[in-house]
Design goal:
The protein has two domains: 142 residues, Quinone Oxidoreductase, Chain A, domain 1 (Alpha-Beta Complex), CATH 3.90.180; 140 residues, NAD(P)-binding Rossmann-like Domain (Rossmann fold). Helices cover 28% and strands 28% of the residues. α1 packs across α9 and α2 packs across α3. By secondary structure, it is of the alpha/beta class. A hairpin with a 2-residue loop joins β1 and β2.
């Protein structure tokens, strides 16, 4: 295949354009593994890249898309051979390295993870970076000692991608999950995923007190800013909050009070440069701890030609759960 279909972002005179076009295979970037991409997904970061609302893309032209699953076509990497099924999340793909919204990708073999035998390619992208990040956050809370018997765990942005998967995982593991959302109409959806209680996001968006009433043993936050600060101030003694997103802003209007008076821990979750060992562990846990029926219930599907329109929807909060993109 000399050319293949790809979404391409270009920039000229400080103006960004994006479109679905034919891309020459010879223009792929360096890498020791070439993959026939089968499925991708749509994350918040992908929406920012495609719309240009944040400087996610660092080189042009760029094929966006930070996640893919596919089959190895050629490889000079010792760990991979033609026919292997592989997953890629992060590593700057779709930002500094040509990404996933294309029928073909060439990447470094060190960036790849083997598709677990119990997860289908479509399911892997229903999980995507959002779900894989949610699993990293759950693992971080567990490592910090936040067990189901320690008390409830709150999840912000619960109807979104990270939030939906986090609610489903925590519910299956036996936690009492408090789901925070700005979309009250999604309450039934969240309870079906595993939430025991649904609260309005306004409870976490008001003025931040240094120490508020203790409400939960832990939290997973994908919003940032005031939401994260309030979540921390309401965390019980010895609890922990895993922070993995900034949909509400990059600032943190908090104080040291929760950390030095209650021993609360703030756990940073990075999914982009995460080690291969931790990635493999997270995918193994997703294989065992994520209910496939709930994953299916939170997932919708689009084609490559629909990604550009969907990118705006995810930034406007009009997307529930996960979106998978059928590439081929």
């Amino acid at each position: 295949m000399a050319t293949f279909k790809a979404i391409v972002i270009e920039k000229a005179d400080k103006a960004q354009t994006v479109g679905l076009k034919d891309f020459d295979e010879n223009d792929l970037m360096d890498g020791d593994v070439t993959v026939a991409v089968e499925w991708s997904t749509l994350n918040y970061k992908d929406g920012l890249a495609i719309t240009g609302r944040a400087p996610v893309v660092r080189r042009f032209p760029m094929i966006p898309g930070i996640d893919f699953v596919g089959t190895v076509e050629t490889s000079s990497h010792p760990d991979w051979k033609p026919g292997d099924r592989v997953i890629l999340n992060g590593w700057g793909v779709g930002e500094t390295h040509l990404g996933a919204y294309a029928e073909k990708a060439r990447v470094k073999g060190d960036w790849l993870v083997r598709l677990p035998p119990g997860i289908s390619p479509r399911e892997a992208m229903a999980v995507g970076t959002a779900g894989y990040t949610a699993m990293l956050a759950v693992m971080a809370l567990e490592h910090q000692g936040v067990a189901p018997d320690a008390g409830p765990v709150v999840v912000s942005g619960a109807a979104g991608g990270v939030g939906s998967v986090a609610v489903a995982i925590l519910g299956k593991l036996g936690y009492r999950v408090i789901a925070s959302t700005g979309r009250p109409e999604e309450a039934d959806y969240l309870k079906e995923l595993g939430a025991a209680e649904v609260i309005d996001r306004s409870e976490l968006s008001g003025s931040v007190r240094p120490l508020a009433r203790e409400r939960w043993a832990g939290g997973i936050d994908s919003v940032g800013s005031t939401t994260l600060a309030n979540m921390i101030s309401m965390t019980k003694y010895g609890g922990a909050v895993a922070a993995c997103g900034l949909a509400g802003g990059m600032d943190l209007p908090s104080s040291v009070a929760p950390f030095i008076l209650r021993g609360v821990s703030l756990l940073g979750i990075d999914s982009v440069q995460c080690s291969p060992r931790k990635r493999s562990a997270a995918w193994a846990r997703l294989d065992s701890d994520l209910d496939r029926g709930k994953l299916q219930a939170m997932t919708s599907q689009i084609g490559l030609s629909e990604v550009i329109e969907a990118a705006g929807n995810i930034l406007e909060g009009r997307v529930r759960g996960r979106i998978v993109v059928k590439i081929r």
